[in-house]
Amino acid sequence: MKRAAALQILTEKERSAVAHYSKSQIVKEIPNYVMPFSKDSERPSWWRSSFEGKTTYVFLGRIHEKKGCIEFLDAWADLCQSNSEFAQGSVLVFCGWIDGLTGFEAHLEQVNVQFGNVFFAGPQYGEEKSRTLAAASFFVLPSKSEGLPVAILEAWSAGIPVIMTPECNLSVGFSREAALETGFNRHEIVASLFEASRMSLVDRDRMGARGAEIVRELYSRQKVGDALLALYRESTGSMEITSQRVRDVRQ
Question: At the fourth CATH level, which superfamily is domain 49-218?
Answer without folding.
Answer: Glycogen Phosphorylase B; (3.40.50.2000)
